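Postdoc handover notes: sequence design on the structure in folder B. Input tokens:
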């Protein structure tokens, strides 16, 4: 049976859990508050790094949300590239933070860039913050997925590299403790979300190839 916690988060759960058990078992009533605090921290990390099973729809013409969260932007992107559309998804600390592939295809390039750690919901975060960009070629066109760090999120995890293939809805990484995920799409995609919508990674249809 698969453990429903992302591998990258298991140490964040195990360490405070062990310390909590040791503290509560041996330190007595004086340090009980510390033990319960550690236990609460372990519980929160287990909640944050949860990795639920999801079954993507079988329609190859759709594009799925790459992350859980709230859509903050959906429309033409200010990228200096005519025809590019952007869907930005802001993840709070209460959202599932697993990133999932919006389409089936091959990773052509993975580009990591250091940067600042501004609030991820800011419009300029896509250009100024630390980020990791995946370029993917699909049967219908090329798309790009950006993992963008935020104020608290200081660790982008990407499990794939150039040459790897991903299925629709397959996991490819996460960002620790709050973040943003952008999807850059060509003009030949009809968007089906708008700012303010809540989406679920690997499940919510955010667009369809024309």
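Designed sequence:
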């Amino acid at each position: 049976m698969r453990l429903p916690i992302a591998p990258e988060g298991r140490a964040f759960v195990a360490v405070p859990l062990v310390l909590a058990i040791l503290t509560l078992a041996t330190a007595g009533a004086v340090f009980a508050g510390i033990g319960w605090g550690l236990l609460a921290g372990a519980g929160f990390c287990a909640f944050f790094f949860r990795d639920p099973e999801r079954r993507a729809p079988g329609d190859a013409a759709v594009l799925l949300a790459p992350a859980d969260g709230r859509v903050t932007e959906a429309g033409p992107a200010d990228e200096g590239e005519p025809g590019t559309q952007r869907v930005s998804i802001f993840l709070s600390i209460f959202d599932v933070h697993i990133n999932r592939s919006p389409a089936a295809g091959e990773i052509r390039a993975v580009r990591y860039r250091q940067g600042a750690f501004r609030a991820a919901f800011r419009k300029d975060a896509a250009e100024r913050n630390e980020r990791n960009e995946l370029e993917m070629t699909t049967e219908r066109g090329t798309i790009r997925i950006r993992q963008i760090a935020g104020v608290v999120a200081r660790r982008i995890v990407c499990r794939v590299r150039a040459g790897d293939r991903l299925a629709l809805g397959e996991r490819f990484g996460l960002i620790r403790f709050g973040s943003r995920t952008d999807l850059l799409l060509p003009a030949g995609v009809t968007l089906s979300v708008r700012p303010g919508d809540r989406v679920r990674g690997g499940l919510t249809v955010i667009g369809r190839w024309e």
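Context for whoever picks this up: The chain has three helices and 14 strands. Don't rerun without checking with the PI first.
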